[in-house]
Structure formats: structure tokens, C-alpha cells
Design goal:
By secondary structure, the protein is of the alpha/beta class. The protein has nine helices and seven strands, in the order E-H-E-H-E-H-E-H-E-H-H-E-H-H-E-H. The two termini are about 35 Å apart.
Length: about 250
């Protein structure tokens, strides 16, 4: 069974080499597919120099969502049985990718989300809320990101009648059926892509599971999505989705 690691990359040439070095590809056919979203730096050339990496370039910037859709199309062309998305900015530690794949390989789910909030929740349940004061324990995740992430998720679940731990994760595993389903639909080109994909997948009856993976703000990474603007977009689109899909009837 072939796995393709899908990496949307934009101006992150300095992070690609350590990311690939930290990835463990167990299958002989497993590959890494990188799409450079019209970067201004050496992202394409660095990716092209790395082992087991197939790199493609968008001539015009397609945004995170547009690049993610292209990655799924390329995964189908590469005959992938499973895919895992991994941000080129190292927002999720590559070492946790096997945890997502292990759950996916059990065969009873279509999509597996690597959830930072589940990781935080499990840590708090084990060691108490005071553990959040330890920056190292929360992997340097800033408080505004952490509590903003929590608040958005709570509000979205209330609005949509869903029970997901997080709608906003970049580490996502899919089986082949899920990838085919994704390519049959259109999703936003901006950063709400992950959220919209998950909500529509939930409504469509795809089997979704979540596993806890730590955040990664230790490797000097940062999200390109401005948090306040992203949050406002998220809530606005969540209400639109409730009206259009009647998720409360699911």
C-alpha cells in the first residue's frame, strides 16, 4: 500500500530539508509530493534536491486551499492508497505522522485528523491545567493561538451540532476514497480550506477520527494565517454552512 506525504510549501525553503530528514518513509513506494505555491525564495530548488521528493510549482499563487487540491490530484496520479498532509512550515512535528497513518491503516475510517487540541486535552487531564503554564510542555504554542483555537472549536460545534475536537489542523490523513471525494468538490483557496473540507465531509457521512499530536512552535515556525481575520472568516462561514447544509438535522 502506497503512501504519499503531501506538502503545500510557500517561502519555506529553510524548513524543507529538516522536515524531510525527520520523516520516516517505511514503504518502498512511499513518496513525498511538494507543491511550491509560487514562492519567492528557493523553495522549489531545495525541494528538488531532496531524496524521494517529487516537486511541482504553481506558476501563479493558488493559495493554501488551491495548492492542497492540486496535491490531492497529484496523489491520485501517483496512485497513492493513503495520503497525509503536512505543512511545509513544520506546524506539526513530522515524527507524529506514523500515529495518523496507524489509525488510518485500521481501515474503519476515511479521514484521520492530527489534533493539537486533543494533545493539549490529554496533557491537562493527566497533569492538570497548571501544566499549560509550561511553555515547553505545550511546545511553545502561544496562548492566543491555543485559546483562540479552543474558542473557535467550541463555537463551531455549538453552531453546527458537531462534536469534533478541532476544525483547524494541517495534519490530515485520507484513504483513497476520501481523496476521490475531495476532488469531486470545490473548497476555498484561503486557509478556511481545512475547516470547510471537514464540515462537508462530516455532512457527507465520511468516517472521521482524531488522534492527539503535539503542536510545533519550537522550530521557529509560525502560521501564515492572521488569527483575528481567520477567526472572523471562520465564524462567518460557519453560520453560512449551517444555513446551507442544515447540519442540525444530521
Amino acid at each position: 500500500m502506497k503512501t504519499c506525504i503531501l506538502v503545500p510549501a510557500w517561502n519555506c525553503c529553510h524548513l524543507l530539508t529538516p522536515m524531510v530528514e525527520r520523516l520516516e518513509l517505511k514503504g518502498a513506494e512511499d513518496e513525498i509530493i511538494v507543491v511550491d505555491d509560487a514562492s519567492c525564495d528557493e523553495t522549489f530548488n531545495v525541494a528538488a534536491s531532496l531524496p524521494r521528493v517529487h516537486v511541482y510549482r504553481n506558476e501563479a499563487n493558488l493559495g493554501y486551499g488551491g495548492t492542497s487540491q492540486r496535491l490531492y490530484q497529484l496523489a491520485m496520479e501517483h496512485n497513492a492508497d493513503f495520503t497525509v498532509n503536512l505543512h511545509g512550515d513544520l506546524g506539526h512535528p513530522p515524527e507524529n505522522l506514523p500515529k495518523v497513518l496507524e489509525r488510518l491503516h485500521q481501515g474503519d475510517v476515511d479521514i484521520v485528523i492530527g489534533s493539537r487540541l486533543i494533545f493539549i486535552q490529554e496533557m491537562v487531564e493527566k497533569e492538570g491545567w497548571l501544566k499549560l503554564l509550561d511553555a515547553k510542555a505545550r511546545h511553545n504554542m502561544p496562548y492566543n493561538r491555543l485559546f483562540g483555537h479552543m474558542a473557535l472549536t467550541v463555537m463551531q460545534n455549538m453552531i453546527l451540532g458537531t462534536s469534533l475536537h478541532s476544525f483547524h489542523e494541517g495534519m490530515r490523513g485520507c484513504n483513497r476514497a476520501a481523496v476521490k471525494w475531495i476532488l469531486e468538490h470545490e473548497f476555498p483557496s484561503w486557509y478556511e480550506y481545512d475547516m470547510m473540507l471537514l464540515i462537508h465531509a462530516y455532512k457527507a457521512g465520511l468516517r472521521i477520527s482524531e488522534v492527539g499530536v503535539p503542536p510545533n512552535y519550537i522550530d521557529n515556525v509560525h502560521s501564515s494565517a492572521p488569527p483575528i481575520k481567520y477567526g472572523m472568516h471562520t465564524l462567518k462561514n460557519t453560520w453560512k454552512i449551517r444555513s446551507s447544509l442544515n447540519l442540525d438535522e444530521t
